[in-house]
Design a protein that fits this description.
Layout: E1 6-10, E2 16-21, E3 27-32, H1 41-52, E4 61-65, H2 71-84, E5 92-96, H3 98-110, E6 118-126, E7 129-136, E8 139-148, H4 152-155, E9 159-161, H5 166-172, H6 186-194, E10 197-200, H7 213-222
Parallel strand pairs: 1-4, 4-5, 6-9
Antiparallel strand pairs: 1-2, 2-3, 5-10, 6-7, 7-8
Helix pairs in contact: 3-6
């Protein structure tokens, strides 16, 4: 099977990135850190294409991380990709979840140590709530869902926490769960992205697991 150029955008984590895998399976990656890093996503794409010596027209496959995470952050990736493909509205894009490649990355690093264990990825949703996804044998068995702190003990029972954002919740709520940290594995990102659902670029939508606080307050006041 002929290899293809693949462009991946991920902006749902604190560490946003652009990744390009070329036809020779060489990987080019630009990481963006900081609260306003999304503002530089388009430039990071441009720089990555230039480094790989390809143009946007040379890219056969596209993939985007749709969450869970900051609604604004995820929208940046989707809007950037829609801008790049504005002349190709029927183009199909692979969509995937960042929690999936975080799990896969941990399995790559720790291998047999995590077989048959329940692994939980926690990402900050609010000060007192997390987006939670739970896996066993590299299969998602729960979520992602927004879980409030008073349900952590029940939902996270017997789980190993496996990502950096879990540290906040473990320390704040004195969680007794074991914590393991692994860096993002590039091949895991590619594998998870290629398993994703394909949708037309014009129909891309972020995974949004919570209502805006203003809407929640409005609904409470109506009761």
């Amino acid at each position: 099977m002929e290899e293809s150029n693949l462009l991946i955008l991920s902006t749902s984590l604190d560490e946003m990135f652009v990744m390009l895998k070329d036809k020779n399976n060489k990987i080019y990656k630009k990481n963006l850190l900081g609260k306003k890093s999304g503002n530089y996503l388009a430039k990071a794409v441009k720089d990555t294409l230039k480094e790989a010596n390809v143009t946007i027209n040379d890219i056969e496959k596209f993939a985007v991380d749709i969450g869970p995470g900051s609604f604004t952050g995820i929208r940046v990736a989707i809007a950037t990709l829609q801008g790049l493909l504005v002349s190709q509205p029927e183009k199909e894009v692979y969509t995937f979840l960042s929690t999936d490649f975080l799990c896969h990355s941990s399995l790559i690093k720790y291998k047999n140590d995590l077989l048959n264990k329940k692994l939980a990825v926690l990402k900050r949703a609010r000060e007192n709530a997390a987006y939670v996804a739970i896996y066993k044998n590299n299969t998602r068995i729960f979520g992602p869902e927004m879980v409030f702190f008073n349900n952590f003990d029940k939902i996270l029972k017997d789980c190993i926490l496996i990502n950096k954002e879990s540290i906040y919740f473990k320390e704040k709520y004195k969680l007794e769960n074991e914590l393991l940290i692994s860096e993002i594995d590039n091949q895991s990102v590619i594998e998870v992205a290629m398993r994703g659902e394909r949708v037309k670029v014009e129909e891309l939508k972020p995974l949004y697991l919570q209502k805006p606080i203003a809407v929640e307050n409005y609904e409470k006041n109506k009761k």
